[in-house]
Amino acid sequence: TTLFRSTVSPHPARPSFLSMPTAHGRLTALWKEHGDFHWQEAGIFDPYIPPEGDARMSSLTREGLKQRTEQLKQSAASQLAVRKVKDYDESFSTKRFPEKAHEMYIEAHNCLTSFNRHKLHALVTERCYPEMVRGNRYRTLRWKFVESLEPSRVVQVRCPEMVSKGNLYGQVTVRMHTRQTLAIYDRFGRLMYGSEDIPKDVLEYVVFERHLVNPFGAWRMHGKIVPAWAPPKQPIMKTLLMPGPDLKPWEEFEDVVTQDSVVEQTQWYK
To answer: I need a labelling partner for 189 at 20 to 30 A (CA). Which of 18, 48, 107, 138 fits?
Structure first.
């Protein structure tokens, strides 16, 4: 994420790199150019720890009530963070934000499948963008949102200070339980993963971020939290090029394969 420029220098110079200590365990870099500061951070501050068995455990059971109690204890820090966020974003509400995050989530994935990278940059942060597009250069993605199994809700809000005091970032974790389809094809059109016809239930914890002190900042998708108890993903089937016969200019592949497959009959007895 980039800090907005407070002033524009008429004589731009080569920026000098200043090494800065890590903030909250993440590598931070600061560039200085004529008094204007630009810094970038990566990672999720104080990531939310999803309770084990979420979306499968009833709140009426003993374990479900225990998880609910822990969530209420952790909500105190979120309430303080919500107050800080509202100081910079008066329209922010934990009740209305999930709907906005849900629309942003769908639009970002539609831009990913259509390779609309310019619009995708406006919907996701600089940390999230390479994670979404990595490995998709020679693939075809088919993604579709089917329905929401549960209403999306905010499970955690954090408002950390980065590098300097008062440089606030807001991070909101939204729990989304949806049904969607995903199919990945390789460059030859062969199916590598998923299916376009069989929807799957997906439980995700999506983090959205905004640079609060930037008056032109906007909420963008920042990353996803994968719980340790989540089941392993289905492996992607890779296609390999099998070596074939050396064809002459006047030969066809089907004819050569047919000739090789014909077995000469041999009489073993008289």
So the answer is: 107
CB crowding 2-16: b at 16 or more within 10 Å, else e: ebeeeeeeeeeeeee
* Whether the predicted pLDDT of 178 surpasses 90: yes
Identity at 90, one-letter amino acid code: E
- What does the block give as tokens for 111? 């831009």
Distance (Å, rounded) from C-alpha 84 to C-alpha 157? 10
Our CA angle for 156, 161, 164, nearest 5°, is 175
179 Cβ partners below 8 Å, 6+ apart? Answer: 146, 147, 148, 149, 199, 200, 201, 202
pLDDT digits (tens, 9 = 90+) for 219-250: 999 999 988 878 888 777 776 667 777 777 88
How far apart CA 209 and CA 220 sit, in angstroms, is 5
C-beta atoms surrounding 45 within 10 Å = 20
Cα–Cα distance, 66 to 50 (Å, whole number): 13
Look up residue 44 and give its two tokens. Answer: 């999720």
Model pLDDT, residue 267: 61
212-251: buried (b, 16+ CB within 10 Å) or exposed (e) per residue? Answer: bebeebebbbbbebeeeeeeeeeeeeeeeeeeeeeeeeee
